[in-house]
Amino acid sequence: MVGMVSSVTPPLSVRHGVRVQPDPSVPVEEVLLTVGDRVGHSNLSHASRMNRGVVVFVKEERLVAELVARGVTLNGAYLQVFLLAVPFTRVTVSSVPPFIPNEVLEQELQGFRKMASGLRTVGLDCRSDKLRHVLLLRRQCFMFLKCPTQTIDVSFRVRHGEGHYMVYASSGSMRCLLFSDGWWWAELSNERSMGNKTGMSYFWTVIYLGH
User: Fold this and answer.
1) Parallel, antiparallel, or unpaired: how do β-strands 197-208 and 163-170 relate?
2) 108: part of which helix (H) or strand (E)?
3) Which of 37, 121, 123, 124 could, after both became Cys, cross-link 134 (CB 3.0–4.6 A)?
4) Would the pLDDT of 37 be above 90?
């Protein structure tokens, strides 16, 4: 008797899933159409909006690798695609002067954990349409951790031009670092010796101004 090849589709696992984080206003259907353009719409299996992102399951694991490697383009903007099978967490880098390039911060962050995404800016979320473009002095990224319960909470200096700047990276919730309960975060500078050169070392400190 000639053996018959089974046509049963292998069961899905977490390795068949990916996560995309578009703008919250983008419908799930629009995200699926974009993902389907990359791997074929008939290869999509399940999807849902979860934790400010869109989780999509595809029928074959090889398609996951393709999505993660190439990403997707939605409304003209490139979106990175993340694995579900690897634990990663959102990390906020605070007290970042706006002129510090992402590449400088990423080089320092990679010394602590492997990065799962690049850095992005964070909006101030002003109510007025006239101020919607204003950004916080923060950047955010995703980093791979050893387990879902692991956290990261570090501070480090970055160099830019003639200055050194102290910034903070944390996977926990953070409060505004500009003004809160009478405390104002101000930039100070100190001269310090760097070999035969004198440079400026900048950092953010706390000054109490009262209510």
Assistant:
1) parallel
2) helix 102-109
3) 124
4) yes
Q: Which of 90, 94, 92 lies closest to 148 in space, CA to CA?
A: 90
d(CA 101, CA 129): 27
| Contact (Cβ atoms closer than 8 angstroms) between residue 91 and residue 109 | yes
Q: Give me the number of domains the chain comprises.
A: 2
Last residue of a domain, one of 54, 83, 112: 83
- Report helix angle 28-39 to 61-70, nearest 10: 100
Q: Which two tokens stand for residue 180?
A: 């809160």
The pTM of the full predicted model, rounded to 2 decimals, is 0.49
30: exposed, middle or buried (Cβ count in 10 Å: 0-12, 13-18, 19+): middle
Q: Most confidently modeled of 5-9, 147-151, 171-175?
A: 147-151
- How far is the first Cα of the chain from the last one, in angstroms, to the nearest whole number? 87
Beta-sheet strand order (sheet of 44-50): 44-50, 53-58, 17-20, 81-83
